[in-house]
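Instructor's aside before we start: the two examples that follow are unrelated to each other. I chose them only because their records fit on one page, so don't look for a connection. First example below.
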Amino acid sequence: MKKQHVLTLTFILFSILALLLTFYLPTFYSPNRVDLPLYDAHKVDERQAREPMLDEQQRQDGNVVAEVQPRYDDSLVLELIAKYGNRIDEIAVQASLFEVQEYLLSRYPADGQARFRRIISMAFPQLANAILAVVERMGLYNDWLIENYALLVDMNPLAREGALWQKRRAFFGADAEKIWADELALQAQKQQSMQEAMYQLEQAADISLDERLYQLQSAITENYGETVQQLVVSPGMVAQVFFGFGSVQDTLQRLSPEQRQAEINRLRKQLGYSDEQIGRLQERDEVRNQRWDNGHAYMAQRKQLVDGVDGVALDEALAVLREQFFKHEASTIAQEEASGFFRYQRPRVFGRN
């Protein structure tokens, strides 16, 4: 039962880790390509290669330009129909056309907006107004991202994610989940992959602590890339997950206290802790060891009292016992026990509590 409890806590901790890893992507907020839900957006290089090239003399000739631009617009209309015609009623596809607008504005500052509206009206006349309205809102969202870029980067991952989704829903309502469906699906896929890796690591027999830690770190890197090295939760959150494995605890419990602490210190070193941090953590471990030893001794004597005394005499004896073992914390322990919670019946998780 205790082992199952530890495993459950480990999966909860991993879920938090997965969220943080997924959301903490500094390049994701780059204003050069800001947070766009692109499906099959046109590649600028390919589009430029297809666009007729004009020399300076031809550009000065208004007749040549007037002849070339409609040809290119017609070509783009056909391309949009071919690429998006079967799915243009999807809000996410409509939103992705924002990048087509941005390309046209960058290439034709004077009339790019008018050309985009004309192209959309020609390609999708039935839905042109709806598409243009969606693209306009995507532009406002894009402007908000750029204006708040520095603020977003400084936020912690969960706060940033909350701010993003609040703004997305403000602009798009329930359609936000459809527009950013690929992002949500990728997040779910990564979490599922990591949960499978964790289950396999928990079930794997006869592998060393080093190999188990290496496989956990490899699974994180494989799913989330080198970004994990930049996280403020690393190595702390990874350590929480690793030490939560029942198999890791089984190994640590078989060691003497001195050997166990040495092994925990060594593993923390591999996780990326500095020598100074390891020293501070060892001091915390030693305090925790004393508290657990004291708590287990209390529980043993408490059981003897419960088995041999009852009624008011038991209440009085337990009060004296709590005072003996816990001093100023005795009242807190009494309140916990009155609610049915016994903190020293919880599983001891070395390296964590």
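Example two begins here.
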Amino acid sequence: MQRLAFLLLAFAAIASAQKPNIVFILADDMGFGDVQALNPKSKIPTPNLNRLSREGMTFVDAHTGSAVCTPTRYGLVTGRYSWRGSLKKGVLNGYGKPLIEQGRETIGSFLKSQGYYTGIVGKWHLGLGFVRKSNEEDIDFTQGLTDGPHTRGFDFSFIIPASLDFPPYVFIRNGQITRNVTLQSATAFPGFLRNGPKGRDLNPEDALDDLTAEATAYIHERAKHDQPFMLYFPMTAPHKPALPHKRFVGATNLGPYGDFVNQVDWTVGEAFNALDSAGVADNTVVFYSSDNGSYMYHLAPGEKDHVTDATVQGFDETHHTSNGCFAEPRPISGRPVTTCRSSCAGSGSTGRFADGRDHLSDRLLRDCRCDRGRRCPTTPPKELLQPVAANDRQARLEARAGHPPFGQRPVRHSGREVEAGGGQRLRRP
């Protein structure tokens, strides 16, 4: 999982004469083993994510202090550990008030300061400044929002407030709710929804397609300009409600969840296609991660699960392989993530982001983006192989816990694994 996924997008990661575009795609509740490139036993077709892994870099050992939706997003957007904020556990609901502190720099505001046009399409889940009437859930949907990504450094935003099973179910474009609302009744799993207001233009089964259309339109529009752009694309899937579009139903023979993951992969492919057709693929860095694993409950062997009965929110352990070093011969105890610091965007080490260290050299990233990974060096640059300083407090804490310091764990590099702190040991996965 994401130990410093909290700096993920502070990623702005390349100091080069021509700053690359940045696209960061964040899945919602997608398991590590769903991707065939990470788990050859997966029966879910994921050709586009396989391509991303094959042509780029895959980070396979990282950790998090809170593996749920809101903390991941707080860390990613602010560059801080989630527990530094006011939310110490759990997640916000769709009515939650703004979690990011006033005046706190975000990836949006930081990249704007570095000359980027910044956009977000998808699930925000960090609280919003709704105009409220008598109570927290009594919202005036005709009024613009006083706080949201549009006030936090993003030039363009098209979002939903939280997970797609949390009301209010509305699209919000640049701080303005797009349509008047009706009432959504509660429904059971796999199409789990709660009672609450729903915009007349939001159909849960079409939501991922609608967000994909907005994201690809953003790419095409920004490609017309000389200014580099950043797109943060936090998808709503495969989080419940597990409602794949009808054209994906039955695609995997693994029920709605498997079909939904297949649609997620298709969505990633649509982003690739947009970059290709807009002519900006060769100057764009694409990142993909997930906030945490699946929402399925762990069931005893032999119990009905989501594969045998789509209405069951759980998995029979004999149908699945758990993450971790006990499940595979190589470390896979987390999500494919990257960590980097604001210094990579050409600004130097500003200290604006509170946590994390830059373990990726600009040379490495520059080489990897030049031709979608095909020109990555077979031996990683020595800058990547520097061990963590002996007096590093986090390293000491982890050493006591029996873990190697961050920066001395394997990452996969151009189809190989790299032991990033202890030498140049390379081995094929």
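The helical segments are 47-55, 69-78, 107-113, 207-222, 255-277, 362-370, 393-400.
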